[in-house]
DNA sequence: ACGCAAAGATGCGGATTCCGCAAGATTGAG
DNA sequence: CTCAATCTTGCGGAATCCGCATCTTTGCGT
């Protein structure tokens, strides 16, 4: 990767991280595009060369994680489908390696801010939209594994959307819970129930 | 219901229908709030008293249908959970009673327009957000039936999000297919596979 | 090492959207 | 019949998003 692409990736990362941090700190309505651009060290106009709006910038990291799930699903075609799915999801969402790169001073305050952020309807929509984009990739990967065609068969899309639904539900429960329930077991539990057919308890 | 509430409901319906029709006909970017308001016979400012934006108006009917699924789920607590769910979803989405109220001249062109509309990322997000709003209601209804608490248990949210995922997937497949596959069987199939645990084919 | 073509960053201006506020009109209850 | 609550509307401002023109930076061939 040349200097050009690296700088572009850095700018994108700086913008999305700044957007996320400022939104968690102040709330969506108290962050202007101008603020995000300033925090990332670029002009406001440049922000719109990378993202169409605040929302897209904020969920960019979530989108990346979801897309990497599809990548992991393409790695070992021999592994049973749901084993691979569980492994892929846990890898991307459980330890949250991304958070390690941006340590947060006050964890409690951060969690509160994230809750506020996801209470915003616009952000929820943006988040789900990102999941839908990734869903197409996941469906393609599932199609490759199972010999089904996403254009013709319902199965791969159904699996992909169910996986994203389970992931979203587990994350929502993680954020709702107090004291917080670890995300990893929640994700594993949700996917296990899904493969068991969601029988009435 | 008094005159006041009826007129309000009528204005809301007129606005959402106008928003949907104009968007399907011209594409999202070629419809301004002003146009929608004019088609509904109110001032542009009034539009914003009902909806926060074009997207919310357009998906208002979808949201209503999803919310009615939750209502149906509260009707007969004796029926097995998944039977009730399947019945509720098919009732609201299969025959599309809402479309009967607004007959479309050129069906083929309408379908094309709807495809274009849902290709718009912003609309996809809005649609999913509406589904998420309804999800809370559905989760509550499932919680009542199964004796689980949405605040404490993963199960009701998991079922609700899985149902919405299956519904969305079936609708997407219906719109993708050519010649069109009837929506009813697709919905039934998707929900059946979900209860079967999505085994690899 | 040099210079050129491609790609990105920036500033400006316009169109649009969304919301708060205040005034006028309509409805429903007493 | 009267009045308070509610709804509608116009105005104005803040913010967003995008096209266009210009300037700077990067990558590559010579």
CATH superfamily of the largest domain in chain A: Tetracycline Repressor, domain 2
What is the CATH level 1 assignment of the largest domain in chain A?
Mainly Alpha
- Structural class label of chain A: mainly alpha
Number of strands of chain A: 0
Q: Between the first and last Cα atoms of chain A, what is the distance in angstroms?
A: 52 Å
Largest interface by Cβ-Cβ < 8 Å: A-B, 44 and 44 residues
Largest sheet of chain A: none
**So how many helices of chain A?**
11
Strand content of chain A: under 5%
Which geometry of chain A do the CA atoms define?
globular
Q: What string, H for helix and E for strand, traces the elements of chain A in order?
A: HHHHHHHHHHH
Which residues of chain A form runs of ≥5 with pLDDT under 50? Answer: none
Oligomer: homodimer
Share in helix of chain A: over 70%
Indicate the radius of gyration of chain A in whole angstroms: 18 Å
- Mean pLDDT of chain A, to the nearest integer, reads 93
GO molecular function (chains A, B): DNA-binding transcription factor activity; transcription cis-regulatory region binding
DNA-binding region (chains A, B): 32-51
Organism (chains A, B): Streptomyces monashensis
Keywords (chains A, B): DNA-binding, Transcription, Transcription regulation
């Amino acid at each position: 990767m040349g200097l050009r692409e690296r700088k572009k990736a850095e700018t994108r990362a700086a913008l999305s991280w700044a957007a996320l941090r400022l939104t968690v700190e102040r709330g969506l309505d108290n962050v202007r595009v101008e603020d995000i651009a300033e925090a990332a060290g670029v002009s406001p106009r440049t922000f719109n060369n990378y993202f169409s709006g605040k929302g897209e910038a904020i969920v960019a990291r979530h989108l990346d994680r979801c897309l990497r799930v599809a990548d992991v699903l393409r790695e070992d075609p021999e592994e049973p489908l749901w084993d691979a799915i569980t492994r892929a999801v846990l890898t991307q969402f459980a330890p949250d390696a991304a958070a390690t790169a941006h340590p947060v001073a006050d964890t409690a305050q951060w969690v509160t801010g994230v809750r506020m952020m996801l209470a915003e309807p616009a952000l929820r929509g943006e988040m789900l939209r990102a999941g839908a984009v990734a869903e197409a990739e996941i469906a393609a990967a599932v199609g490759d594994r199972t010999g089904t065609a996403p254009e013709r068969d319902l199965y791969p899309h159904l699996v992909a959307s169910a996986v994203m639904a389970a992931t979203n539900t587990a994350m929502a429960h993680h954020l709702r819970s107090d004291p917080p329930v670890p995300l990893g077991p929640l994700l594993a539990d949700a996917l296990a129930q899904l493969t068991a057919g969601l029988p009435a308890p």
